[in-house]
What does this fold into?
Amino acid sequence: MPDHFYVYPSYLGRGRSRDEGRRVPVDLTVPDLTAEEILAAAQHLGYKATLEADKQYPRAAALFLGRIKVMKRGTTTKAAFLRALATELHRRRAAGGKK
It folds into this structure.
């Protein structure tokens, strides 16, 4: 079992369908999401995360939006982490005023 998992902006991005790789419910999606925002939110949640800017999501091979490598912690599942991450991104956007 790997000690990490990857998070692509497509997992949480608004405008993506489940077939296109979205992994969270529509109400948790974030518009115009960047890998840097995901990195900051993951680190704020206490996870060790690194940006891999030159990577692409296989379902959108023409776009190099990057990905985040997140080290697993405890028994947290990827699905639970993505929901917590989406909630944190919404909180950060609300505090920062970015829509």
DSSP finds two helices and three strands in the chain. The chain has one domain: 4-96. The CA atoms of residues 15 and 92 lie 20 Å apart.
